[in-house]
Amino acid sequence: APAVPMVFKKPAAMDARQVDKRAPNRDGVTYREAINDKEAWKRYMCQPAAELQQFIFKAIPTFGSRCPVCDAGMNGVQEHLLSLKHWKSLWNKLGSVPDVNAALDWTKPWVETFQTMQGPYVFNHVTGEQGFREVV
């Protein structure tokens, strides 16, 4: 008997996470899922937290700042950003999950600026996006 071709219908509505490519997706997790689930947060922020830590230790060897999200010391930047305290503090400050336009807005209070010899370097605590202010 001939094989019956598989027919897939398009969904009536698309999930916004799949449609809006501006929001980063890391390890199958978006910022919306990460804000709502501690384990998803760790998977989502692991890579950007490691990048930020590596950058800070090279650009600001004497770094000893406090986190603007939870007012804790950030000696181990990656460890701190992945911590339960940081995740809970971020969620409490946000109140609700921001839409993608707000989440990606570099002027929001969850964006931290690090002053370096190469210029201001910004880190978005919601999305993990980061880079020099002139570039982002």
Task: Describe the protein's architecture and organization.
Helix content is 38%, strand content 14%. The chain contains 6 helices and 5 strands. It has helices at 16-19, 31-36, 38-59, 77-81, 84-94, 100-103; strands at residues 25-26, 29-30, 111-116, 119-124, 130-132. Strands 3-4-5 form a 3-stranded antiparallel beta sheet, with helices on one face. The protein is globular and about 35 Å long. The model is unreliable at 8-14 (pLDDT under 50).
Supply database-style keywords:
5 strands, three-stranded antiparallel sheet, two-stranded antiparallel ribbon, 136 residues, alpha+beta, 38% helix, globular
Give a quick rundown of the structure.
By secondary structure, the chain is of the alpha+beta class. It has six helices and five strands, in the order H-E-E-H-H-H-H-H-E-E-E.
Largest sheet geometry: 3 strands, antiparallel
Mean pLDDT: 85
| Largest beta sheet: strand ordering | 3-4-5
The helix fraction, in percent, is 25-40%
- Please indicate the percent range of residues in DSSP E strands (runs of 2 or more): 5-15%
